[in-house]
Amino acid sequence: MTTRDELRAEKALQGMEFPASKTELIDYATERAATPKTLQALHALPDRQFENKEDVVEAVPQEPEGDAPGGVHR
User: Fold this and answer.
1) Structure confidence by residue, pLDDT tens digits, 12-68
2) Which of 4, 19, 31, 50 is the most buried (most CB within 10 A)?
3) What Pfam families does the database record attribute to this sequence (predicted)?
4) Are the beta carbons of 28 and 13 closer than 8 angstroms?
């Protein structure tokens, strides 16, 4: 995922009550009509309890940004 994914996850979880499980995060974002990319980022999270929104953002898996998987398209 990318920095944009972190921002998407943070925005989708505004107002979420914590602690929350991965499933609760996905359900909440789905109810708020999160974008497919946001849901993809949330599905990539580890299956655990999250203490706050910052905890979620830090757990979003990182991948270099670019047009192709694995980094910048050349």
Assistant:
1) 899 999 999 999 999 999 999 999 988 998 999 999 999 999 999 888 876 644 554
2) 50
3) DUF2795 (PF11387)
4) yes
φ/ψ of 6, rounded to 5, equals: -60, -45
Burial class of 10 by CB neighbour count within 10 A (0 to 12, 13 to 18, 19+): middle
Angle between helices 22-31 and 36-43 (to 10 degrees): 170
Burial of 25 (0-12, 13-18, 19+ CB in 10 A): buried
CA angle centred on 43, ends 39 and 47, rounded to 5°: 145
Angle between helices 3-12 and 36-43 (to 10 degrees): 100
SS3 category, 13: coil
Which pLDDT band holds residue 2 (cuts at 50, 70, 90)?
low
